[in-house]
Amino acid sequence: MYDKSNHLPLDGELYCWRGFYSNEQADDWFRRLHSGLAWQQERLFIYGRWLDVPRLMAWYGDAGARYRYSHVDHDPLPWTGDLLHLRNDVEAACHAGFNSVLANLYRDGCDSMGCHADDENELGINPVIASLSFGATRLLRFKHSTGVKVDVELAHGDLLLMAGTLQHHWRHELPKTRRAKQARINLTFRRILRLS
Ligand SMILES: O=C(O)CCC(=O)C(=O)O
Ligand SMILES: [Mn+2]
């Protein structure tokens, strides 16, 4: 289902397919990804000490799809069968091609992602990024450079697509919340332009 109310006409494109996967399908994907992906605890050296990134992460993709996050270059793990299946579904829906996926596991509402734009050089000028959500409903907050904020609730089985000039004008974050007691898995499918 394509929810027109979540379309941002201003400085970028944002589309949301509510219930892209049914509840039962999403339950199954959540279980498989939770137990099947090679989740890593990334650490950051900030103000003279090491801090755990407040979520677990994993990077998969085509050979050479190197991506920098948490201040470190990451070489991709090879695609799993499940990730390829999900990629096919997402590519068919979005009419776009992806060669990599960043997986995030938010163990509960204390895990989060800080405000950022997905504007790394490797992704090109106007990247198309498709994001699947499984597990706990969480709020993704978009902040426009003018200060305008738009909150999008992402629920079990939803698919979100960011495109156009969105990453130039909007940043986004996944704030901590007391409401989420359960885990959430998010997959962001991306296209790395130059494979190393
Ligand atoms: O968890 C989310 O929905 C957002 C993830 C995200 O922004 C990212 O991986 O760059
Ligand atoms: Mn992002």
Structural description of this entry:
The termini are far apart. The strands form four sheets. A six-stranded antiparallel sheet has the order 1-12-9-14-7-4. Strands 8-13-10-11 form a four-stranded antiparallel sheet. A two-stranded antiparallel sheet has the order 2-3. The protein is 16% helix and 37% strand. The mean pLDDT is 94. The protein is globular, with a radius of gyration of 16 Å. It has one domain: Sandwich (Jelly Rolls), CATH 2.60.120.590. It has three helices and 14 strands. A hairpin with a 4-residue loop joins strand 10 and strand 11. It is an alpha+beta fold. The structure holds 2-oxoglutaric acid and manganese (II) ion. The site of 2-oxoglutaric acid has 11 residues, from strand 7, strand 13 and strand 14. The site of 2-oxoglutaric acid (AKG) has 11 residues, from strand 7, strand 13 and strand 14.
In short:
With about 200 residues, the protein is an alpha+beta fold. The protein has helices at about 25-35, 80-95, 165-170; strands at about 15, 45, 50, 55-60, 65-70, 70-75, 100-105, 115, 130-135, 140-145, 150-155, 160-165, 170-175, 185-190. The protein has one domain (about 25-140, about 170-195): Sandwich (Jelly Rolls), CATH 2.60.120.590.
